[in-house]
């Protein structure tokens, strides 16, 4: 695996790869790699060669009050994991390399970026969209891989790619979970043993919603109440939001139809975790609601 630190060299490699007619897959990350990241790399390896992984803790997507300076960084451990995962290039630029003095541009995906995570973390998605667009420009991949764990982020990137007619195809991959259901996240390591135990409530709450939906419940308010009740039973969880939204607009819905998401965010001590479940309700030939699929 070749490690690349500069924008110019990464662009040079990308040009070379394209000239050879090869299909590149890019997996953007902030490092502190876990099996969720590795699943994106595996998806990339199935579609593309070479595979590029970027590691960049992007200051622009952290609000001033957030954990930018204490976000976990361990480039050497990450490098080994990427080597083992069969990655071809690691792109690990410095902040000065990505945002040199005088940098002024930002990308805002209007509407979608202001709700939910964007409301609680002002500027977050502006930072995400800006860095992702720049990474796509630098690495020029045919495919770029993102996790549904960050469902709103994935939706915003898909919108940006469509709006700006980007060359890269955005691929959204399933959530990888611990055996007890907790979605893998670089932030899980901040949880105390008690908080780690308590954090399983997120999966239980989404599973409660799944059971209700599979039993035929379609009222978003009732499903939301079941999820909130489950969260309220865990004393270490301080919920930020529970929302059921249309998968396209991310606006709240009254009744579940077609494609929607149950989204939640909660704090455990100072650690904030998010999770979600995707719900697809097929429309039967007669026009009524058909088979339902809940993906956790
Ligand atoms: P991060 O390093 O947290 O910025 O995440 C980099 C990418 O990995 C993003 O596209 C995330 O959505 C994705 N990701 C993070 N956790 C998971 C997970 N548990 N399962 C699948 N993808 C994930």
For the report, how would you describe the main beta sheet? 6 strands, parallel
Number of domains: 2
| Percentage of residues in helical conformation | 25-40%
Name the CATH superfamily assignment of the largest domain. HUPs
User: What is the annotated CATH architecture of the largest domain?
Assistant: 3-Layer(aba) Sandwich
- The CATH class of the largest domain, by name, is Alpha Beta
- Globally, the shape reads globular
Report on the structure:
With 296 residues, the protein is of the alpha/beta class. The protein folds into 2 domains: 2-173, Rossmann fold (3-Layer(aba) Sandwich), CATH 3.40.50; 186-286, Pantoate-beta-alanine ligase, C-terminal domain (Pantoate--beta-alanine Ligase, Chain: A,domain 2). It has 10 helices and 10 strands. It has a 6-stranded parallel β-sheet, sandwiched between helices. It has a 4-stranded antiparallel β-sheet with strand order 7-8-9-10. Strand 8 (259-268) and strand 9 (271-283) form a beta hairpin. Helix 6 crosses helix 7. The two termini are 33 Å apart. The model has no long low-confidence stretch (mean pLDDT 97). Bound molecules: adenosine monophosphate.
List keywords for this structure.
single chain; about 35% helix; 10 strands; 2 domains; globular; 4-stranded antiparallel beta sheet; Rossmann fold; about 300 residues; Pantoate--beta-alanine Ligase, Chain: A,domain 2; 6-stranded parallel beta sheet; alpha/beta; binds adenosine monophosphate
